[in-house]
Q: What sequence folds into this?
């Protein structure tokens, strides 16, 4: 791995689904000699692109997991993370962006800025990742890169500046005009590998000169030298322009725009030059960690090799040789055999095999120095963990991980599937922090939770394909809760005499609503209940919280105070007091007016202005409360609170109501009491379920 | 009880009267820039919120966060005005009523009554109670707004929603003979209610310009809080 970090780039390729990310990456790998044959995303030979290493990805033509790879271009080492495009997989995109220094944002020259481009753009803003844009598919009918560049300004608020012009569009797309060098670039050979540089065709010269002037005008904001050169009418060199573009891009104040057609092998090489010329090296980016030994103060990490190591595990994969942990080293260097500490749990570990990935193939390396992305074998950790040298105790800022919003029950079809399903779930939950699983003790069903219907669907599919675990899925479910609304007294005696030692315990007191999940107050005086039995009482009450007496949902927000009781010198035991507490809870609970609470989600819709009224209507129809709506350029943002139970299938409804142009984000906000009518419906359903059992 | 107290102490109850707020089609609060049109409109909306009604606040000037902030401030001013109230009770009341308020922020160019119509239709479709009033803050009455008023009139008829506007007049313009600013004079037939806010010394004078019997009534308000000065 190159140690001159000026010549290292860690980049991501992000875009809306089907914009051609994987196709572009294939070209990059071909031109950098990493692969010797280009496979199309849905190739006729059924091979599939190299970056789509999962079976399912090959079949669907989408990229699900980030496949990391590296290549070399003009003596630079480029680490690429290919990221998924669908909104349900955004945790993958987010994890990638956290470790990347720059992004190539791909846009379709026909469809322009689409909903996922907006999501990706927000994520880039969150992690302050500089980007360059590549307008792909210029060979398609209806291609209009100038319009797309304008959309970057209007819809995403980028200061987009075109550094190239197309030579012909649609089926006449031949190449590009580089406005920096003022040369025409053509791409010949079977795979466009020969870049032919010629003079700009005469009929495009005027347009090119005008575009260059506009470009220089926009770029001059980032360079005093360039401004001086313009004012003093000196020669404007390529270096002057490139330095200014680089400064503006790294400061995230401009987005240089490139174009071409990856599928037709046009203008991929100039884009790779742009990656080197304009996207930052690890030295250009400031990364922070938190010093856990020093009041959690933030520390600036330095991309140097002789300082203590700080690295982030950003992705896990369970391969045939065990767990593969993708890491980005921010400071120091991880050498084979080094001792590292996982700052989350303080566990020591030894760096075993170190590799760098080329999609599914791997290449063993001796060390992963600061600024690089690589992978380790045989490390037991979770995604998002920080590895540090033993002498420091830093943690990298936690990644923004969303809480799962939907759950499904899954039942394996047979015994074999049962075993394989456990293996699959174990792997998936380690790989993806937004995918969770637990067993519902009552039904015995395994419940999976995730970020959306498609998210769960893909995991169910992966279980089947990769682990041969066929499962049946149930209906999506909402996590309801029960709570009480008023104070109620209890005075319960548990007494049993069935031969042998009896059981005796009396507890008295009251239950009342509270803000905490569960509170237990002991106000027993005079030894009415001996101290050794108090924990048993608490345990008995706490045990009732898992399953509410009303509808068997977990109970929250209850404060229990015990102030009286009685015991028997022989017959009282911990068990007896636990039973007494359970009885007391049941006695008081129904008197305390229990209600059902449901999760309320904060739903933010981003929609083109023309659909604002319609989208607000959709919220109204879902028992939602609109908190407000705001126009931002051509888009409107609608903030609302909607019960999760009414959000199932919302993405489909929203898509059809807005011609697929709106998107929404949803996160847990609070629990609220369900209205009476809904409560009755829940009770009815619950009773039906019980009958079925 | 608290709600009733707040309604009765509101400067709006004292000037226009609680019932009068939704009696008709259109109402306007007029003043020069910076005198307190929006604050007064917020007080109008608040007393309907306190009456368990829904309101819609459309602003052509302020972003959504600012609209929300103005309501919170308006509510606090009203609470402070009636004296000591258990702070927890006040917070609970605010949490309760704020959910019935929807703030929408447009720009002058993007304001389109069709979007509001779509939104209001969805209330009917979902069988929900419609907002009783809509505040439109920031519409420029120096321009020709007759088309917009026509469209809003049809919204008023279709959804029984009373529309209150802010109307900006200018220092250099003289009032018409009837005491109306020119902006109101142009559209006076369309408006059932109108209140003019004028700075007088260090106070604000609220003059009812149009409201049947109440016309010409004058009340002094605190410029910082828009509450009545006894």
A:
């Amino acid at each position: 791995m190159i140690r001159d970090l000026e010549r290292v780039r860690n980049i991501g390729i992000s875009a809306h689904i089907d914009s051609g990310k994987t196709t572009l990456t294939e070209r990059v790998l071909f031109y950098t000699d990493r692969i010797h044959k280009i496979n199309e995303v849905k190739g006729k030979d059924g091979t599939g692109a190299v970056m789509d290493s999962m079976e399912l990805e090959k079949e669907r033509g989408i990229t699900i997991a980030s496949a990391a790879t590296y290549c070399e271009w003009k003596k630079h080492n480029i680490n690429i993370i290919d990221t998924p495009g669908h909104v349900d997989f955004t945790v993958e995109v987010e994890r990638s962006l956290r470790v990347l220094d720059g992004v190539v944002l791909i846009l379709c020259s026909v469809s322009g800025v689409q909903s996922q481009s907006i999501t990706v753009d927000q994520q880039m803003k969150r992690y302050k990742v500089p980007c360059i844009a590549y307008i792909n598919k210029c060979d398609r009918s209806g291609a209009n890169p100038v319009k797309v560049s304008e959309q970057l300004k209007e819809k995403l608020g980028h200061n987009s500046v075109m550094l190239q012009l197309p030579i012909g569009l649609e089926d006449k797309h031949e190449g590009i005009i580089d406005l920096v060098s003022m040369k025409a670039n053509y791409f010949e050979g079977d795979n466009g590998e020969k870049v032919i540089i010629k003079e700009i065709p005469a009929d495009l010269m005027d347009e090119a000169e005008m575009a260059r002037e506009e470009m220089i005008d926009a770029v001059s904001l980032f360079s005093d030298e360039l401004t001086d050169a313009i004012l003093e009418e000196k020669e404007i060199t390529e270096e002057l322009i490139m330095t200014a573009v680089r400064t503006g891009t790294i400061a995230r104040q401009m987005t240089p725009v490139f174009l071409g057609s990856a599928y037709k092998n046009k203008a991929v090489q100039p884009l790779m030059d742009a990656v080197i010329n304009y996207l930052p090296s690890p030295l250009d980016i400031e990364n922070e960690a938190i010093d856990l030994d020093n009041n959690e103060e933030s520390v600036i990490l330095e991309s140097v090799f002789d300082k203590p190591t700080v690295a982030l595990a950003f992705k896990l994969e369970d391969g045939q040789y065990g767990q593969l942990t993708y890491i980005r080293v921010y400071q120091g260097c991880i050498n084979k055999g080094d001792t590292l500490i996982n700052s989350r749990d303080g566990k020591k570990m030894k760096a075993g095999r170190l590799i760098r990935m080329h999609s599914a193939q791997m290449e063993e390396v001796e060390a992963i120095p600061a600024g690089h992305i690589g992978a380790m074998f045989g490390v037991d950790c979770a995604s998002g963990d920080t590895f540090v040298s033993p002498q420091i105790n830093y943690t990298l800022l936690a990644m923004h991980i969303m809480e799962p919003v939907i759950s499904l029950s899954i039942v394996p079809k047979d015994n074999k599937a049962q075993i394989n399903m456990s293996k699959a779930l174990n792997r998936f939950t380690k790989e993806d922090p937004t995918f969770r699983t637990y067993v519902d003790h009552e039904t015995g069903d395994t419940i999976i939770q995730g970020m959306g219907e498609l998210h769960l669907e893909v995991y169910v599919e992966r279980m089947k394909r990769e682990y041969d675990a066929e499962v049946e899925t149930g209906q999506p479910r909402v996590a309801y809760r029960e709570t009480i609304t008023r104070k109620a007294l209890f005075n319960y005696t548990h007494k049993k005499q069935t031969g042998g030692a009896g059981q005796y315990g009396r507890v008295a007191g009251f239950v009342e609503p509270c803000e905490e999940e569960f509170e237990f107050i002991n106000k027993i005086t005079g030894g009415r209940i001996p101290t050794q039995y108090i924990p048993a009482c608490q345990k008995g009450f706490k045990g009732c919280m898992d399953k509410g007496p009303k509808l068997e949902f977990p109970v929250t927000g209850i404060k229990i105070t015990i102030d009286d009781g009685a015991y028997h010198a022989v017959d009282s035991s911990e068990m007896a007091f636990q039973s007494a507490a359970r009885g007391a809870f049941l006695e008081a609970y129904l008197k305390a007016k229990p209600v059902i609470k449901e999760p309320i989600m904060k739903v933010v819709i981003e929609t083109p202005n023309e659909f604002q009224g319609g989208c607000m209507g959709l919220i109204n129809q879902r028992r939602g409360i609109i908190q407000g709506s705001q126009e931002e350029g051509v888009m409107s943002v609608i903030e609302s609170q909607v019960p999760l139970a009414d959000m199932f299938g919302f993405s489909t409804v929203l898509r059809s109501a807005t011609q697929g142009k709106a998107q929404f984000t949803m996160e847990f906000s609070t629990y609220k009491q369900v209205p009476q009518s809904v409560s009755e419906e829940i009770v009815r359903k619950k009773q039906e379920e019980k009958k079925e059992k | 009880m608290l709600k009733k107290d707040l309604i009765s102490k509101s400067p709006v109850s004292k000037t226009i009267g609680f019932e009068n707020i939704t009696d008709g089609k259109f109402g306007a609060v007029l003043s020069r820039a910076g005198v307190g049109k929006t604050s007064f409109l917020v007080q109008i909306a608040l007393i309907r919120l306190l009456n368990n009604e829904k309101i819609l606040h459309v602003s052509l000037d302020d972003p959504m966060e600012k609209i929300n902030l103005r309501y919170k401030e308006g509510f606090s001013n009203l609470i402070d005005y009636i004296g000591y109230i258990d702070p927890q009770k006040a917070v609970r009341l605010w949490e309760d009523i704020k959910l019935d308020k929807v703030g929408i922020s447009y720009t002058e160019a993007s304001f389109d009554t069709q979007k509001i119509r779509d939104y209001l239709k969805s209330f009917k479709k979902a069988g929900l109670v419609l907002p009783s009033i809509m505040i439109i803050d920031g519409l420029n009455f120096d321009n020709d707004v007759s088309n917009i008023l026509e469209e809003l009139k049809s919204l008023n008829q279709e959804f029984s929603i009373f529309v209150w506007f802010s109307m900006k007049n200018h220092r250099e313009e003289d009032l018409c003979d009837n005491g109306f600013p020119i902006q109101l004079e142009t559209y006076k037939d369309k408006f059932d209610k109108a209140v003019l806010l004028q700075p007088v010394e260090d106070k604000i004078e609220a003059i009812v310009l149009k409201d049947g019997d109440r016309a010409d009534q004058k009340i002094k308000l605190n410029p910082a809080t828009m509450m009545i000065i006894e």
In short: The first helix of chain A runs from residue 21 to 31. Residues 149 and 565 of chain A are 76 Å apart (CA to CA). The first strand of chain A starts at residue 8 and ends at 15. The domain at 597-678 of chain A is CATH 3.30.70.240 (Alpha-Beta Plaits).
